Amino acid sequence: PDAPRRPLSAYNFFFIDERERILKAMKKRDEKKAADKDAADKEAADKTGDESKDDKEGEEQNEDPLKDVDLDDSDFTPSTYDDLMTLRLNNKEKPRPHRKTHGKIGFQTLAKLIATRWKALAEARRDHYKSLAAIDMDKYKEKTQA
Questions:
Q1: DSSP label at residue 105
Q2: What is the pLDDT of residues 6-49, one digit of tens each?
Q3: Cα gap 46→11, rounded to integer Å
């Protein structure tokens, strides 16, 4: 119970970081879609003078969750160790109750995407995550030797 948490690997840090990036990109895409749909609905209502809307909910459920998601790495800014540890720990001092997921993308799909992106990751970015893992390992060794 008093043992320190095991240190994270470079891939673990990458996974935490990439998951946040993907979810933010998906949220941005969904907001853009909603704004475009609202504009189109308003335009259609102005033309017809009617507020009727076509529901396409069944069609959207079968959609690829990553369709139109911009995962461009050109705006990449390295996350700090503290930022990623905050995301990881997220106040997990006590067991968390079951909560619903974000529902945007399944874990299996997310894990496959992140694994593919890890394999194709540039060496400079991989070194960044390796340095974060080294920091975590050093902190772990300090705690175990204390």
A1: S
A2: 999 999 999 999 988 888 888 888 888 888 888 888 887 777 76
A3: 52
Structure-token match 């050093």, residue found: 138
What would the two tokens of residue 32 be? 């853009």
Are 126 and 10 in contact, with CB atoms under 8 Å apart?
Answer: yes
73-109 residues labelled b (16+ CB within 10 A) or e (exposed)? eeeeeebebeebbeeeeeeeeeeeeeeeeeebbeeee
Q: How many CB atoms lie within 10 A of CB 121?
A: 18
Q: What is the pTM of this model?
A: 0.70
What DSSP state is assigned to residue 122?
-
